[in-house]
């Protein structure tokens, strides 16, 4: 796990300036660093030593013949198996690192080597003889990779701050403001900085002397075809269990100490159970929560920790700890924070760094197994409304259904599935965004871009059910933001987070499982007039196949309790000191002069009772605070 920076240009910066840009990522790689340069390229690497701790495994790494140079952030978990095959082909290795395996695999197989990798990665390889560079991001976007380019130069890095230092350009991308409020991060493969982009997952860029080619090298679309044949619950249980165990075992490969986040929820508990099964010594587990009643899951985490005799640590936070840390983390992320639990995750990472360097985490399970029950059950709302006249409902049932539908959706008539999905998925309604933001950006035009982005993914699997389209969109868009949050919060503390549920083999298998095994009905008849938010976890079981796959390894109280998420007591804070803090940030002269806020409406919202009573409303104010803190750090000179 590391930080990388690279520049392809006929006019290279001084080595000193390049190293300054590279060292902005020292938190990603505090153990070592290196730079390699040629006639028209320069690569830099900050190292967090995980596999082969010896300095001879440092990067940039050059091939035995001196032709290829690689910089690599991430892990190739099956590097031992690939190495064995390469040795049989005559390759000799000087290190025990996965970086050298990656390099030799590229020499042997070309860019087709990507098909062989199980892992998380962002890397660049320069082939001197062919004068060709490949810049690659892993299949599902676990590791970040940003780039900026013009006719003369192409620059890329693990973090935006290094690009800003090299390009000396910094201009706000106003599209990102709207995307942030709707989806919590920029979803158009852009960033908050104009001209700096995020390489999409499962893509690489091939750069030659006169061409830049973007290539998608992996797709999930084929997995849905396997749903045509229902292989039965027992088959899927066995496949899920075996693949997840393989995924966890691969992610326990490390030359440094490792452990697990253990929240007390299903996903982290499954990972902890599998880790304990596959090691002879107690694993370290960590959980975090807040002092306020009802805002931690310590009791459930303890159940799992006791069952598997883990070396367990509880970390208790206060609101004061939280507010002090927000601005610090924004500077690491180069973006506003997306969700309140990023701060606890960062603070927990700083604490566990005292004991371990690698931590396994449960992100990615909800997207593939139907864990967001209230939204993933919502196609049931839409489909009944579309087919209401054909349903076997009596007059009273029909009236009750319509009343419930109108209460939830505001008497909205949806033209198609996508319109329905976007009303549910967009965190801040368009009308509220207009009251938060000034006309600095053309919000209506930006909204059309968002629609086309989601439409693209719905169309890619046009013949599938609405349930599958929704889960596919979550995997393609929602997951990327989630993984970025995990990467930033852990790497800021020089900790490597590994996510077993985002192993591409697990994801492919999960998307081949029919929806009925993910969202399992308990009593569909009793739910016939209800909406998804009243149905979920009462009349159905989200993530059913995952839970059944491990019901002999975990307590029922953990597996089948209601989903809690990662609670942060925003409402309580907004009723006290945080309310004054928010006013101080959002109503300041700096914020008013910035010209991007509708300050009059924001002031009204800050003084209303909604901020204390509605968690979702408090969240929106929290996001605005983060946006302004970000602006203060990166665009203060523009005022």
Determine and state the CATH class of the largest domain.
Alpha Beta
pLDDT under 50 segments (min length 5)?
Answer: none
| Main beta-sheet annotation | 6 strands, antiparallel
Total domain units: 4
Total number of strands = 19
Query: Based on CA inertia axes, which overall geometry fits?
Result: globular
How many helices does DSSP assign?
Answer: 28
User: Can you tell me the CATH topology of the largest domain?
Assistant: Rossmann fold
Query: What Rg is obtained from the alpha carbons, in whole angstroms?
Result: 25 Å
Describe the overall structure.
- This protein is α+β, with helices and mostly antiparallel strands and 639 residues long.
- The protein folds into four domains: 2-216, Aminohydrolase, N-terminal nucleophile (Ntn) domain (Glutamine Phosphoribosylpyrophosphate, subunit 1, domain 1), CATH 3.60.20; 231-370 and 473-559, 3-Layer(aba) Sandwich (Rossmann fold), CATH 3.40.50.620; 379-471, no CATH class; 570-638, no CATH class.
- Helices cover 44% and strands 15% of the residues.
- Helix 2 crosses helix 3 (98-109) and helix 24 runs antiparallel to helix 26 (599-607).
- The protein is globular and about 80 Å long.
- 46% of the residues are buried.
- The model has no long low-confidence stretch (mean pLDDT 93).
